[in-house]
Design brief:
heterodimer, A: mainly alpha, two-stranded antiparallel sheet, B: mainly alpha, two-stranded antiparallel ribbon
Chain lengths: ~290, ~300
């Protein structure tokens, strides 16, 4: 008995430490971002409780035009992009799940070839350039409109819908569009919601396409701005000539550490908010979808 | 005639796939056709001129290209071999927890890192590994060690890549093993209990061999993406101090192509990577099939 208890203790400790490494950074960033700017010098890597908590960092960030614009851009790209993803994936998955049309095999091969061969970064760049999409939101939104992997997952969900429902609807004189709206979408809802989450998270996290296709920082989403702030330490491009954000009435300078923490929290907040919902859908979702054909 | 009728009858399905056909032609097939740039000299105005294998010769004559290829292979191998068993072990450890509350807590935390962008993960690692006040170095100092500049040390940087990759994906990848665990026949455990096997013997002789099947399949499939050593990760974590050990093919083509605007050469490097990639995927697929059919385990 004693040996088993020891194993349990070690096991629980290990797993707890692992979850701690995931939770800790968020608590740390949150604490740093809530610290009063005048106490910034007392922040260490071990900070988990803010000194003299205040929202002044968020107030300053949310009144900085470039950050506000970035938040707007992120939402714009995410909403429009995910809508495009979902619409295209639903109609394509419907055709793949129920259609028995001539040429379906060739069409499937047509979808799979791009998964096998990646032409690399330059031909993609040349395409966007030749389409005159450089420096537009479309350069970020249009690529990645359909993910074949998600398409196959959704097709699996569609195929799990009982065929009798379609037969009955057909007898009642329903056309395909009605069936998609009244049968497919309601019954495959968990699957649709699951892949919508995945598409939306991917859209929200996109930092690279804006970086290479959009030269105007005013059109960058939050992730690209964050990257320039942290990795490039390119503060002036983001925050204007002074490369500082002032706070409060006195116009003191906001320490970079606090700007960083605040921006990280802002850029993960939507993901943290939808995460619990995703977990719920996901458990039923992935299991059904992974029994693909 | 019969085919025509069939096409007409199914016309709605064709309407449905037309948008995807247009999308794939423009955003996937045109770039595939665009790799011919690797055999051309790029001209800003007018049409490009054919250059034959000039850029491939340049590539194979460049010692730096081989350095980058070597980095890619080393980083990929480290991730593949060290990272592979972690999700499996994690799934088994979670499975061994008896307390449901703690089990649910662990399960609802470990998927999160997979949903974060590498920009955020990179920020997190730079912060916690900071030699000045990062928590890791504060712990090292507490135990009397010297602070280590992980992110800027050529000795440690690849380790950071492996650890951060595991941190990000171990939880997510453990899911597939968790569902494999569910499919193990409980009769096996009952029988072994009757035979007097203890908890560890059951794990060792039943659970692990069953999960090995999943692991080997995943290993083979990952082989197909061997030359993809993780662009987003390296791109966001790399800095000038560690570029000699961190620069991989993808970051190299990005820099040579888009920063130095050496378009043709970067396309050639990308094409080389793509062709090896196809070859690896087909090999991996063949291996996976062979392994499944032969039933090694």
């Amino acid at each position: 008995m004693k040996k088993i208890n020891l194993f349990t203790i070690i096991n629980v400790t290990l797993l707890f430490l692992f979850t701690l490494t995931i939770i800790y950074p968020f608590i740390h960033y949150l604490a740093v971002s809530l610290t009063d700017p005048s106490y910034a010098s007392q922040i260490t890597g071990l900070t988990v409780i803010p000194k003299k908590p205040t929202l002044s960092v968020y107030k300053s960030l949310l009144s900085t035009p470039s950050i506000l614009k970035a938040i707007f851009n992120s939402f714009f790209i995410t909403v429009l992009g995910t809508f495009l993803n979902i619409t295209l994936t639903i109609i394509t998955a419907y055709a793949l799940a129920y259609g028995k049309f001539p040429g379906k095999k060739i069409y499937t091969v047509f979808l799979i070839i791009p998964m096998l061969f990646n032409p690399g970064i330059i031909p993609n760049y040349m395409l966007i350039k030749n389409l005159h999409l450089l420096n537009t939101y479309w350069s970020v939104i249009l690529p990645g409109s359909i993910d074949v992997f998600y398409l196959m997952i959704l097709r699996g969900f569609f195929m799990a819908v009982p065929m009798e429902l379609y037969e009955a609807a057909r007898l009642d004189g329903a056309n395909h569009l009605t069936m998609i709206r009244k049968i497919t979408i309601p019954l495959a809802k968990p699957g649709i919601i699951t892949i919508s989450f995945f598409y939306a998270i991917r859209r929200w996290n996109e930092y690279f396409l804006p970086l290479i296709y959009i030269s105007d920082p005013n059109k960058w989403p939050l992730q690209t701005v964050l990257r320039q702030l942290l990795v490039e330490s390119d503060k002036s491009a983001i925050l204007g000539a002074q490369s500082v954000i002032s706070y409060g009435l006195g116009g003191g300078t906001l320490p970079f550490k606090l700007i960083e923490a605040g921006t990280v929290i802002l850029s993960v907040l939507p993901i943290l908010i939808i995460y619990p919902f995703l977990l719920r859908y996901f458990k039923e979702g992935m299991m059904v979808g992974s029994v693909k054909g | 005639m019969k085919v025509k009728k069939k096409i007409y009858k199914n016309r709605f399905f064709y309407y449905l796939i037309i948008p995807s056909i247009i999308y794939f032609i423009i955003f996937h097939y045109i770039p595939i056709y665009g790799v011919r740039l690797a055999f051309q000299d790029y001209r800003l105005f007018g049409s490009n001129e054919w250059a034959g294998f000039k850029y491939f010769k340049q590539m194979f004559n460049s010692p730096y290209f081989f350095q980058v290829l070597k980095n890619t292979i080393i980083i990929s191998s480290l991730k593949l071999f060290i990272g592979l068993p972690v999700p499996m072990i994690l799934a088994v450890l979670i499975n061994e927890i008896k307390n449901n509350k703690f089990k649910n807590y662990v399960r609802s935390v470990i998927y999160l890192p997979h949903l974060l962008s590498w920009v955020v993960i990179s920020a997190i690692f730079i912060t916690i590994l900071s030699p000045v006040d990062g928590i890791v170095n504060q712990i090292i100092s507490f135990f009397g060690g010297e602070p280590i500049p992980f992110m800027t040390s050529t000795k440690h940087f690849r380790g950071v890549l492996v650890i951060s990759e595991i941190w990000r994906s171990a939880g997510w990848d453990s899911m597939i093993y968790s569902s494999a665990l569910l499919s193990i026949d409980p009769v096996l455990y009952e029988a072994s209990k009757v035979d007097g096997a203890n908890r560890f013997q059951r794990m060792w002789y039943i659970t692990f061999p069953e999960l090995m099947k999943t692991m080997i399949t995943l290993f083979i499939l990952n082989m197909g993406f061997f030359l993809k050593a993780g662009f987003d990760q390296v791109f966001n974590m790399m800095n000038d101090a560690v570029i000699s050990v961190a620069d991989i093919i993808d970051t190299y083509t990005y820099r040579v192509g888009l920063i130095q605007t050496n378009f043709s050469y970067a396309t050639a490097v990308g094409l080389f990577q793509g062709v090896i990639g196809i070859f690896l995927i087909f090999m991996a697929n063949k291996l996976a099939k062979k392994y499944d059919a032969a039933g090694l385990w």
